[in-house]
Write a structure and sequence with these properties.
The chain is α/β, with parallel strands linked by helices. It is built from 17 helices and 20 strands. 51% of the residues are buried.
């Protein structure tokens, strides 16, 4: 779409007019930077505000945009009072007092995803969920490429949505978080899915019902709803009169698992697509991810044979059930991306035998008692570390042997002392990482380093 058409779309949907709008971009992270580039291209005047004294990207921003007003070190009410439109980055809560007050006074909330949706006229696939969304997004991107499509993937994963516009794609695949969806109002994806809903981000959402409600916004519009019927909260999101494709690893669905003879297959309706054993990923939760990706691909008309060919060579993502090493017969698996309870549960449920679990970090307000049944069933011991280790220890009291560690090196050494040949040690923290690490990648990398140090 050319810029004139995009501006007309923004005017009609948000009264966002370059001549009259007073836009305040809240947050100067990678999303805020992408918004700034987009607004500059279209000729909008805007200012930026960030609560940090020196946002990490501010020097780079000033090099390219020295004339844009940037306010740092807090949220000054005066900046919000003059704004007609707020574009709030996902990392900033809409419940911030200055933002709430501006909304109450009539300021329009527009998200970067809204701006993106107004700027494309080719299909968008939108993917959200508590767990698996990065895997499914990347998986579907590979599948679409194999099917001959010019595809761009991003959003909450990797490249911000607005920066994808430069790719001139035939298909966009977006991973979206609940924070992005809560402030998005005009997305109309050709196909969308909520992969699952489990307790996460309850430090930002009032309860799991509100969290699920924000996730459900991915289905706005009239595109194909891809529904996980194994998840009660997701199954309840089905809308009458909409085209629906379902998936399940537990029962009958449009996309499911079923045996033919001694072989278990990924199925589309009654037709086998590929043997489950040909999927090169650990854990049955990854079978669910593959079924979701297949359903989304079929929903937007991609060739099923090409989709399956891509699945057979998909190696997964770093820090997501990633095999680090096998040492003295012990398999070490890095699932540092498991930053919530649901991800940890999914990882554990994928094992047929008991494992040693390394967990802990920032629980983000989640109830750790939800871990108890699966930990009791699937682990022979747990090593805990981080800010909320005591909460997990309390939840797991008398369930399995629990050990405490001060750092990752110590956690790995304790796990090594507990494990025997044939065992797996799984880092699947069920918590965020920022209490001890830069991010979950840093946590996963330190785990890998500590494991490899065992050899030395």
């Amino acid at each position: 779409m050319n810029d004139t058409v995009i501006i007309e779309s923004l005017k009609s949907r948000f009264f966002l007019d370059p001549q009259h709008a007073k836009v305040l971009v809240v947050g100067l992270g990678i999303t805020g930077m992408s918004v700034a580039r987009f607004l500059q291209r279209l000729g909008f005047s805007f200012a930026i505000i960030d609560s940090r004294d020196k946002p990490p990207l501010i020097d780079s921003f000033f090099q390219h945009s020295p004339d844009v007003a940037v306010f740092t070190g807090g949220f000054d009410d005066a900046a919000f009072q003059v704004a007609t439109h707020l574009i709030v980055s996902p990392g900033v809560s809409l419940h911030e007092q200055s933002i709430s007050k501006a909304i109450a006074n009539g300021a329009n909330i527009v998200s970067d995803i809204d701006l993106f949706a107004c700027s494309v006229n080719v299909p968008i696939v939108a993917i959200t969920g508590s767990n698996g969304k990065s895997t499914v997004t990347t998986m579907l991107g590979d599948m679409a490429t194999a099917a001959g499509k010019r595809v761009a993937i991003g959003g909450n994963l990797g490249t911000p949505a607005l920066d994808l516009l430069a790719h001139n794609a035939e298909l966009y695949v977006l991973e979206l978080s609940s924070f992005q969806l809560e402030r998005t109002s005009v997305l109309n994806a050709a196909a969308a899915t909520v992969l699952n809903v489990s307790a996460d981000h309850l430090d930002r959402h009032a309860d799991i019902a509100e969290y699920a409600e924000e996730k459900q916004r991915v289905y706005q519009g009239d595109g194909v709803m891809v529904i996980n019927i194994d998840d009660v909260l997701v199954a309840a999101m089905r809308e009458e009169g909409r085209k629906v494709l379902s998936f399940s690893i537990k029962g009958e669905a449009d996309f499911s698992l079923a045996y033919q003879g001694d072989t278990e297959y990924l199925m589309y309706q009654q037709s086998p697509l590929m043997a489950l054993a040909e999927l090169p990923l650990e854990g049955r939760h990854n079978a669910a991810n593959a079924l979701a990706a297949l359903a989304l691909g079929v929903a937007v008309g991609l060739d099923v044979t090409a989709l399956c060919s891509a699945l057979k060579v998909f190696k997964g993502l770093e820090h997501r059930m990633q095999r680090v090493a096998q040492i003295h017969g012990i398999t070490w698996v890095n699932d540092s991306k498991a930053t919530n309870i649901g991800a940890c549960i999914a990882a554990l449920e994928g094992y047929d035998r008991k494992v040693i679990l390394i967990a802990g970090g920032d629980a983000k307000g989640a109830d750790m008692h939800e871990l108890t049944p699966v930990v009791q069933e699937k682990t022979k011991g747990v090593v805990l570390m981080g800010k909320d280790a005591h909460l997990i220890a309390y939840a797991l009291a008398d369930c399995v042997p629990v050990h405490r560690a001060d750092n990752m090196v110590q956690a790995v050494q304790i796990a090594a002392s507990l494990a025997s040949a044939g065992d797996s040690v799984l880092l699947s923290p069920a918590c965020a990482s920022l209490d001890q690490y830069k991010n979950y990648q840093d946590r996963g990398n330190q785990f890998a380093q500590a494991v490899l140090a065992l050899v030395a």
